[in-house]
Amino acid sequence: MGTALIYDEEMTKYKLLWVDPVCKIEVPERLTVSHQALIKSGLADRCVSVPVREATDEDILLVHSEEYLEAVKKTPYMTLEDLQVFTLKYGDVYFHPNIYHCAKLAAGAALQLVDSVMTGKVRNGMALVRPPGHHSMRSAANGFCVFNNVAIAARYAKQKYDLKRVLIVDWDIHHGQGVQYCFEDDPSVLYFSWHRYEHQKFWPNLRESDYDAVGKDKGVGFNVNVPWNKVGMTNSDFLSIFCHILLPVAYEFCPDLVLVCAGFDSAIGDPEGEMSASPDVFAHLTHLLMNLAGGKLCAVLEGGYNLTSLPQSVCQTVQTLLGDPAPPSANLTGPCRSALETLHCVRSAHLPYWSCLSHAAELPTSDVSTKRAKLTEGKAPQAGEEEKKSAAVAEWPEPPRRVPPPVRTAAVLPDGVACPDRCQRFSSSEDPGPATVRKLRETFFRDANDGGALHTLVTLTALVEKMLKNEVGSGLALVSNVPAALACAARHVAAALNKRVLVVCVGDRMEVIPGTEDGKTVLVQFSSHESDEQKGKYEVPVCLKKGCSDVPGFMQAVLSLLLPLGYEFDPSLVLLVRTAGCEVCDSAWQQLTGLLQGLAQGHTLVLMHEEEKSHVATTVSRLLGDAAPPLGPLRAPLADHMEAVERIRHRLQTEWKLLQTTTTGCGECGES
Ligand code: X5A
Ligand code: ZN
Predict the structure, then answer these.
(1) Is 503 helix (H, G, I), strand (E, B) or coil?
(2) Given 51, 214, 382, 397, which residue has the most CB atoms within 10 angstroms?
(3) Average pLDDT over residues 168-175
(4) CA nearest neighbour of 569 among 245, 331, 247, 276
(5) What is the number of the ligand 1 atom nearest to the C-alpha of 302?
(6) How many CA atoms lie within 13 A of 67 on its CB side?
(7) Confidence check: pLDDT of 377 > 90
(8) What is the pLDDT of residue 2?
(9) pTM for this predicted structure
(10) Which residue's alpha carbon is at the smallest distance from atom 7 of ligand 1?
(11) How confident is the model at residue 370 (pLDDT cuts 50, 70, 90)?
């Protein structure tokens, strides 16, 4: 199952024909440089090329009014002067004799993409289109957009494939108000948008772009706005919103299809966004969405006006869709104060509608009115107000090449257990030498004299080394002695290789030796074992009393605790351990395995007890990058579990800043 790429040169064949400083950034080169970068990097060749088509009147009328369509239809025959007059009816947009044709192709490209994904021709894909779509409204062009490509695609997908729920993720830096208006009373389409807002001072300056526009009537709760009130937002700010808002809500919603309004004006260097997120953050955003909807994801280009960061970001997105390992998540700090304020406001506004947010703190009403006041004052920032974050720097390093390892997934399996397709059975050919053998024996098998187990440890050590050299991507080992295998692998990474290792255990609690004293090992242990011990920053027991059978509670812990902590720790290897008595249901285990692939450049080594061999095939499939099956819409997590997760987040948020969700307790205003 491949990745579709939809592009047609025809969509470069319109441009601004008069002087307009607002519109001059929307140039044909946006598309050519993006496409060229995909070709030059070899990514285009790896995609399934799908032709565009023209959207029909019927398609366009799914979203737009007949009057508007008829008006746009006349533009190819207009004189330059008429076009200018027509343009003036709308905001921040321009017309050209060929734009109607291109707009039909842009919407048609989105529909071709939906068809390719929904019929199973490909797993996912991206459409490179002009004009963009998310600002256009039922009867109005706006913000460089003529037809609302993604909104049309959502209605089309629902109708043609009888989908119950569609998620639209709009990571463009502008608010897609056209998409919001289209679906604000519709609970079957969940619209998420983050956007530069600056307390309504940034275009399109709408009151309804704020966090309290949560949807209307039946659609209340299904419109999620994340307004950025400062420029200069970073990878940390973006990932924080994903972990603490979008992903929990999206998993609870459980879409049948994910559409992305993929604008890259949210990347560094963009003249519109003025944000500071590096192009490789889009690899992580994409990856985090790829385990929803069974992997059915359609990304459709929206904005992106820096002709260097745009193609880099497009390549990061497409390479991730193709299943290549994620880039490292280096240099994540916590979200900035302004992002935390936004995070808190959004969570509290949506608390009535999503049980994953039910423990978010209520927003003090006074706080809300302060935010309004800032706009009405409309003057210079008051003394004591935080400095505006510095705008995007002019230069940033080119994202390092993501080289897929020669062996994607390797498995250490006992004789008699078959190795799944596409996975390489791993056995160490090198002789470890008597010194290593003696050391392993002394450390792990002082009392026993089990040659077979010893051999397994030698093999595991070799596998770990190959993973860290990127000769092997991910791995799985079925072993008879899980604690010994874990200790051996963890110690080898942390002590011998001096690299960070994240250990994630699911199931019965076990003593992990060596411990976490070296600061190179973080241990997150999910079990039903009650523990009120205040462990340090590197040891995180997560007690889910009723076991991990509470899937919503387990997912809450994974999304809002494990992932942010893991991203901030930035390990070189993830050791994922499934111990005996593991109660987590198979599909939740698969989601966990899939999501963890975003860390450590996909270097996950799964350790399981020999008796768990029935889970080998599905686990290997996740390690190979196949999407996990959907969990179904999630009900409320058990209150006990929710509280446990919140307690741990609260305890650790001074140490792991990506766990923060409020400005209280972040050191500036005392404990909450
Ligand atoms: C699609 C998109 C931006 C319009 C900005 C107008 N439009 N000032 O990014
Ligand atoms: Zn934009």
Answers:
(1) strand
(2) 214
(3) 99
(4) 331
(5) 1
(6) 4
(7) no
(8) 97
(9) 0.95
(10) 143
(11) very low
Q: What is the mean pLDDT of residues 84-104?
A: 98
pLDDT of 550 > 60? The answer is yes
Using CA positions, which residue lies closest to atom 9 of ligand 1? 303
Ligand 1, atom nearest to 272 Cα: 5
Q: Which two tokens stand for residue 344?
A: 């808190």
CA of 209 to the centre of ligand 1 (A): 15
Architecture label for domain 3-392: 3-Layer(aba) Sandwich (3.40)
User: Among 16, 145, 270, 300, which residue has the most ligand 1 atoms within 8 Å of its CB, making it the best to mutate?
Assistant: 145
- What are the residue ranges spanned by the domains of the chain? 3-392, 408-658
CB-based contacts of 131, cutoff 8 Å, min separation 6: 14, 26, 99, 102, 103, 106, 144, 145, 146, 147
Q: Return the C-alpha torsion angle 571, 574, 577, 578, nearest 10.
A: 120
Q: 332-353 pLDDT, tens per residue?
A: 999 999 999 999 999 999 999 9
User: Which atom of ligand 1 is nearest to 145's Cα?
Assistant: 1
Domains 3-392 and 408-658 share a fold: yes
Q: 628 alpha carbon to ligand 2 midpoint, in Å?
A: 31
Q: With respect to CATH, is domain 408-658 assigned 3.40.800.20?
A: yes
CA of 444 to the centre of ligand 2 (A): 57
Taking only the tens place, the pLDDT of each residue in 81-93 is 999 999 999 999 9
Q: Is 206 exposed, middle or buried (0-12, 13-18, 19+ CB in 10 A)?
A: middle
Ligand 1 binding pocket, CB closer than 6 Å: 22, 92, 132, 135, 143-145, 172, 174, 203, 263, 265, 272, 302-303
